[in-house]
Write a structure and sequence with these properties.
The protein is built from 1 helix and 8 strands, in the order H-E-E-E-E-E-E-E-E. It is mainly beta and about 160 residues long.
């Protein structure tokens, strides 16, 4: 850890953490599932596990919804976690659901849709060509069948502007 103006890094402070750090997000006034200040102060404390045993984070997003920060985690076991964060960035409860659709169907692309900071939904493109928008509870809000695109490889999905479905 060092100041931006520091040019001589020989005496940099080294910090070790007892938990693995997957991703560092930044947003105005916030850091990740724990603020940097709290994380450094409590870096040796045992943290509660948000995920199930054997589950790892594959993708994560940090969003603002109605003046609250929400961490969205996609996991190796096809689950989605919505983790609401307190003012200091620590977890304050979560909702989760599984992304499962038929035996031969797999998730080829996903994106987080933040509609005017009022609601965050998940958009998933399945290998059968169905594009599904899920609520934070995992309910299907809307579904479309797409054609004319190759779905044999993963698809990168990014929200460019507010989606009206």
């Amino acid at each position: 850890m060092w100041n931006e103006e520091e040019s001589y890094l020989e005496d940099v402070k080294k910090h070790t953490f007892t938990t693995n750090i997957h991703t560092i997000h930044s947003s105005p006034g916030k850091s990740s599932s724990e603020s940097l200040e709290v994380g450094l102060t409590k870096r040796k404390d045992v943290k509660p596990n948000l995920l199930e045993q054997g589950e790892t984070v594959s993708k994560s997003y940090l969003e603002r919804v109605k003046d609250q920060t929400v961490l969205i985690l996609f996991t190796s076991k096809n689950k989605v976690y919505y983790v609401r964060l307190t003012g200091d960035g620590s977890p304050d409860g979560n909702l989760n659901f599984s992304l499962i659709k038929g035996a031969n169907c797999k998730n080829v692309g996903m994106a987080v849709v933040n509609e005017n900071a009022n609601i965050v939904t998940i958009l998933v493109l399945w290998s059968d060509g169905e594009l599904v928008q899920y609520s934070e509870q995992g309910a299907i809000m809307v579904a479309y069948n797409l054609s004319g695109i190759c779905l044999t490889s993963p698809v990168a999905m990014v929200m460019l502007d507010t989606v009206r479905m």
